[in-house]
Amino acid sequence: MSEKSGKVEEKAFKFAKDIVQLVASLPSGEIRSILGKQLMRSGTSIGANIEEARGGISKPDFIHSMNVAKKEARESLYWLRLLSEFDSKNNEKLTQLAAECDELIRMLSAIVKTSQGR
What CATH number is associated with residue 88? Predict the structure, then answer.
């Protein structure tokens, strides 16, 4: 495992924890049950797909799983942006999480690009 992929794993795990805490803090209602559930699924699956990539049996398998993780990060960014339109109470936290998510996307893109070039 490269240093970069180890760092992305840690970052994805912290991001997932922060997502769980955020969704748990949302008031009950449709926003929590719909947007929160979608964000919880995509935000926690980033790290799971990175872990799956580590166990990949081939280079194409690794690249595929990292691409799936990147897609989940992009989806998470969408749900964070949408949630920020309806939840001004958590605006600072949502902005912070969106920045972290954007960084994850950049890191995953770099890992995929580097892996494809080898």
Answer: 1.20.1440.60
Q: Does this model's pTM top 0.70?
A: yes
Q: Which domain holds residue 33?
A: 3-117
Could you give the CA distance from residue 109 to residue 53 in angstroms, rounded to a whole number?
Answer: 14
Helices then strands, counting H and E runs in the chain, come out as 5, 0
Tens digit of pLDDT at every position of the chain (118 positions): 455 557 999 999 999 999 999 999 988 888 888 999 999 999 999 999 999 999 989 999 999 999 999 999 999 999 999 999 988 788 899 999 999 999 999 999 999 999 998 6
**H-helix or E-strand containing 60?**
helix 59-86
